[in-house]
Amino acid sequence: MNIKNTRLQNFRRILSEKNIKLKDIANRLDKAPSQVSAFGGKNPTKGIGDQIARQIENALGLHDGYLDMPHGVGEFSTHQILSHTGRKLPVLRSVPAAAFLELDGELNQDGTDEWIESPGPVGPRAFILLIEGISMYPHFIEGDKVVVDPSRQPLPSHYVAVKHKHHHAITLRQLKQEGTEQYLVALNADWPDRIVPLNDIWVICGRAMWKITDL
User: What pTM was computed for the model?
Assistant: First the structure.
């Protein structure tokens, strides 16, 4: 599914769940109903672009990038995803995840205690990052499992797995852009140095694709 279809599907689902009509969201966006119908009606004539996607998320109280993620991010359980792809991924904490990315070969199933089937197609080096700490609270809490795919190109507002050049651990951040500069953002408003520039001491190790939450 491409990004435009993903956004449209999420947009329609959210309106249905919240019982919001197109004219209501048009009012929130300060747009004419016909403008909203053009990208979110029964027969849309154009896709939801980056700018309008962020406006919709803001109007509905969603975090940046929510519409870009396939339905199920933050809502999958391990029971729901079984048998979707047949591809099992290793569940790794921050330090083992960094070591895994430095391996030349593949990690065998004796190398980690937990393997979970991927909820969708991923590249050959994909893994599941076990969230530790509170830097990404409240959208990600300790124990959440996030599928990371190093083969996917991240864009601003996407969540990314990153590694500091002088540390041996992987952490999750949101990628933001202001003008030509890019930044890594910790979602926890109380986190020290929560916004740092993406410079040569940081390496993006992959794009976060799905969050898997145990029931």
Answer: 0.63
